[in-house]
């Protein structure tokens, strides 16, 4: 051991040997440090397993905190303040919980500032100018107002979202937090004149800025929460309104497209529609083909021209030109009246011309 001591303290002239023993001692201390760290981690895990708050729950809480804090201007401060608060971390399960925890931690910080100002006045009151004393007492007043506003915000959050409309909750909470932020600035503004004032300002700056940032984070989370909930409410109300309109709509109109007029709906529903012409493949109608009936229809008609197509298979491509307006086809059912053409893209036709019924926007 004496030899080790001499080598380490420089009693030996052999520099290489000294460096070798120094490395050995560093390695020894590093090993001891790692061992202590491992023991500490093991104790922490054992403690968390014995605690009713499981590791999984803590991880879930931290994920919720991180999500809520992501909407703030100071996310690192937001997360660290709440996540490492032993009182708050285990009770986090929603964004609302994160906001409440953040507000309570902000209240504690404001209280600390209050007592710091009181102590400053008590310890150095005799050395302050009249203006500095006035500014310090102004700080105490604004800090007291901040405490009232934050307590009111916590109470309002407890009632959220039941006692008032979401919009009213949002407006009240945002007003309270905005006022609290302004109070910190008002306190510091009282010490922005000469160099003596600025020394006092420097003594208060860190605490006031910390509270201002905490209030800013709470305000951002409140805005994100209320905006999200109001959007969900708006969509729910819109959906409910659509359902109510659908329920109020007469049964005779249900299921029809909006662009179809009421007259056309009645016409299609009527069991006694009188067609203008009848198409029948067996020759019992006015025409044997749909194309022939369309060709004979009036051009630029101002009223519906109804073509009744009897049951049968009509192997044709029906072209309805732009001049043939207000034409309506009525069949005997889609499984009974079938119109099928032979044009296809493979056969040389274009997609437009391969349609079974052309110009569908002018035909019904």
Automatic annotation (TrEMBL):
Q: What InterPro entries does UniProt report for this protein, alphabetically?
A: Invertase/methylesterase_inhib (IPR035513), Pectin_lyas_fold (IPR012334), Pectin_lyase_fold/virulence (IPR011050), Pectinesterase_cat (IPR000070), Pectinesterase_inhib_dom (IPR006501)
Which EC number(s) does the record attach to this protein? Answer: 3.1.1.11
Q: At the top level of its lineage, which domain of life is listed?
A: Eukaryota
What top-level class of enzyme does the UniProt entry assign?
Answer: hydrolase
MF-aspect GO terms: enzyme inhibitor activity; pectinesterase activity
**Annotated transmembrane regions:** 21-43
Listed A to Z, the keywords are: Aspartyl esterase, Disulfide bond, Glycoprotein, Hydrolase, Membrane, Transmembrane, Transmembrane helix
BP GO terms, sorted: cell wall modification
| Gene3D superfamilies in UniProt | Invertase/pectin methylesterase inhibitor family protein, Single-stranded right-handed beta-helix, Pectin lyase-like
Matching entries from SMART domains are given as: PMEI
Q: List the PANTHER family hit by this protein, alphabetically.
A: PECTINESTERASE
Task: Report the protein name in the record.
Answer: pectinesterase
**What organism is this sequence from?**
Trapa natans (Water chestnut)
What taxonomic ancestry is recorded?
A: Eukaryota, Viridiplantae, Streptophyta, Embryophyta, Tracheophyta
């Amino acid at each position: 051991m004496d030899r080790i001591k001499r080598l380490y303290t420089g009693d030996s002239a052999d520099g290489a040997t000294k460096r070798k023993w120094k490395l050995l001692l560093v390695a020894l201390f590093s090993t001891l440090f790692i061992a202590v760290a491992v023991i500490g981690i093991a104790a922490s895990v054992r403690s968390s397993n014995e605690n009713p708050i499981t590791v999984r729950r803590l991880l879930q809480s931290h994920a919720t905190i991180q999500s809520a804090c992501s909407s703030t201007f100071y996310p690192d401060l937001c997360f660290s303040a709440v996540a490492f608060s032993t009182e708050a971390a285990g009770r986090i399960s929603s964004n609302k919980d994160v906001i409440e925890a953040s507000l309570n931690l902000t209240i504690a910080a404001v209280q600390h500032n209050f007592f710091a100002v009181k102590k400053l006045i008590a310890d150095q009151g005799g050395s302050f100018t009249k203006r500095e004393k006035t500014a310090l007492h102004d700080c105490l007043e604004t800090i007291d107002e901040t405490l009232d506003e934050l307590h009111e915000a916590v109470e309002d959050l407890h009632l959220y979202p039941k006692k008032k409309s979401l919009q009213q909750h949002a407006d009240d909470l945002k007003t309270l937090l905005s006022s609290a932020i302004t109070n910190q600035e008002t306190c510091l503004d009282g010490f922005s004149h000469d160099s003596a004032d600025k020394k006092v300002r420097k003594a208060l700056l860190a605490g006031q800025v910390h509270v201002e940032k905490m209030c800013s984070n709470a305000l951002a989370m409140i805005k994100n929460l209320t905006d999200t909930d109001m959007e969900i409410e708006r969509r729910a109300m819109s959906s409910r309104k659509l359902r109510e309109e659908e329920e109020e709509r007469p049964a005779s109109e249900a299921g029809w497209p909006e662009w179809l007029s009421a007259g056309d709906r009645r016409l299609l529903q009527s069991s006694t529609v009188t067609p203008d012409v009848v198409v029948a493949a067996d020759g019992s109608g006015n025409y044997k083909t749909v194309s022939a009936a369309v060709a004979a229809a009036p051009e630029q008609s101002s009223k519906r021209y109804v073509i009744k197509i009897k049951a049968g298979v009509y192997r044709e491509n029906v072209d309805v030109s732009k001049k043939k307006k207000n034409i309506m086809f009525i069949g005997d059912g889609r499984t009974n009246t079938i119109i099928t053409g032979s044009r296809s893209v493979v056969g040389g036709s274009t997609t437009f011309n391969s349609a079974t019924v052309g110009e569908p926007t002018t035909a019904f």
